[in-house]
Amino acid sequence: MLDAERLQRLIAVGLDLVSELDLDTVLDRLLATAQELTGARYAAVGVMDESRQNLARFLTRGIDEDTHRAIGDLPSGRGVLGVLISDPQPLRLEEVSSHPASYGFPPGHPPMSTFLGVPVVIRGEAWGNLYLTDKDGGFDADDEEAAIVLAAWTSVAVDNARLYTTVQGRRDELERAVRGFEATASIAQAVGGETDLDRVLELITKRGRALVEARAVTILLLAGGELEVAAAAGEGLRPTGSRIAVDGTGLAGLIERRRPIRTRDVRSELGIEVADLGVTQASAGLLIPLVYRGAPLGVLVAVDRLRGDEAFTDDDEQVFKAFAASAATAVATAQNVESDRLRRTMEAAEAERRHWARELHDETLQGLAALKVMLSGAARSEMPDGVRATMEAAIGQVGEEIDKLRAIITDLRPAALDDLGLVPALESLAQRTASRAGLDVRTELPEAGAERLPPTVETTVYRVVQEALTNVAKHAGATTVNLAIAVTNGAVEIAIDDDGAGFDPESATTGFGLMGMRERVALAGGELRIERRDGRTVLSARVPLRG
User: What dihedral angle (degrees, nearest 10) is formed by the CA atoms of 322, 323, 328, 334?
Assistant: First the structure.
């Protein structure tokens, strides 16, 4: 029967053990308390492997480091230690060497005589054993009972610690998954709301670095048979723009097989210099191919984890792969938008060239050709009065052609817009349109002496009005046009309406004039709308002063 003092100590130790959630700390306290309660010189705990046939871990107390080194390998569960593995019941011996299963101690092992072994059982399964040896006078029944109670407390504490470790691991895994979802959502938002390639690349590198806690993250995009460092975030970065040939390096296999590479030594395993990845130094690396609809775009690279081991883990790879899939979509979308914008710009420029080519051919060139015929006829004439009349007509023709060229130059870039500002330029434009097309152009403009607007805003507003009036004059068959401009709430408001035949704004998307207006306003950060209202075609646009 345990005495009151020892029982109280067991209760206190039990409460202390079950409140501890670190397994190694639990085992260390078990050994210290077992020595204290039983008077054993040496204490050890053996933890069994999954097969429950051998010991996977063996922790001791009472044996110094020099003795440990002299003994050599720790026991795996043979001899007397193995008896408790095959038959998990308490075992108390007066002389350990007298047991039939004993086959002696290895060289350098301290002598041991008395022995007490108690199994540690968790949820009905043997988990390990508590071994106590070398107590003067031998172990008694109270020692055995104390060890059994202590083993029971230990089983609860170990089970708690294992459950805590499992929960902690799942929580960490969940946190990594949440970070992955957040980063992926950020890239998904970039796909829908950001089409500037440089901004998308910056977002990917910064979010990707935070996701896997890397020292640096870079993006290498394919350009022909090379990879170009397009963006980077983190520490120890090299300037972007450098290129590396793919053939003959580990990057070729990465791109061809579309499989990630996780390495502890970038230089030796990939056959490239770390500078080629856009960083000044790197040991470990995680490289994920960027693939969009089966086509390779480049490689997303993370180097050197900031916490713990520099090498990346399986979890890092899985999260980074999911992130890279969204990143590839964002990059491809931005590249497509950029290519499409360039294509439309080139098409609009070509259409503009064709427009001015027609203007010069139909107006100026034909006028000059008529003038040539007139002068040639005068040169062959022998009548002085006829020559004089022809010369006077030629002078008049030259004046008309000068006026036409001046009008074309004004349309290309009116001097009034640069010298006087938006309002005088629009007044002049309205007068020219009214004179040429026979329209009644009614204007409502700010005062001419008003403060000048930013040059890009003035150009945008002028070109939108110019193109709208040109469309009305050429296509609408209108008699009256109303033009109103107002600067209010940090933006320029444009309103143009006419009484012409009109058109379907939804289907009118192929003309470069309308497309040019939409693009100009969009690039300025504004909005443009065309609609039919009360028998009139109404164009309204808003151009912010700060786009």
Answer: 140
All structural domains of the chain, each given as residue ranges with its CATH number in brackets, are: 4-166 (3.30.450.40), 193-338 (3.30.450.40), 417-544 (3.30.565.10)
Residue 73 falls in which region: left (phi positive, over 0), alpha (psi -120 to 50) or beta: beta
Q: Give pLDDT tens digits along the chain (547 positions).
A: 567 777 777 777 777 777 777 888 888 888 888 888 888 999 988 888 877 778 888 888 888 777 777 676 667 667 778 787 888 889 888 888 778 777 767 676 788 889 998 998 888 888 888 889 988 888 888 888 888 888 888 888 888 888 887 888 788 777 767 766 776 666 666 555 666 788 888 888 988 888 888 999 999 998 877 888 999 999 988 888 888 888 878 888 888 888 899 988 888 888 888 888 889 888 899 999 999 988 899 999 999 988 777 788 888 888 888 888 888 888 888 887 777 776 676 666 656 656 665 666 666 666 766 767 766 766 666 666 666 677 777 777 776 766 666 666 555 556 667 777 888 888 988 998 898 888 899 999 988 666 788 888 888 898 899 889 988 888 888 899 999 999 988 899 999 999 988 766 555 444 556 777 887 888 788 899 988 888 889 999 999 987 5
How many angstroms separate the Cα of 185 from the Cα of each of 175, 182, 316? 15, 5, 17
What residue has token string 């009214």?
A: 434
Give the strand pairing for 480-488 and 440-444: parallel
Tell me, yes or no, if the pTM score tops 0.85.
no
Residues in contact with 439: Cβ distance below 8 Å, sequence separation at least 6, in sequence order: 433, 472, 473, 478, 479, 480, 481
The one-character DSSP state at 213 is T
Residue holding tokens 């940090």? 490
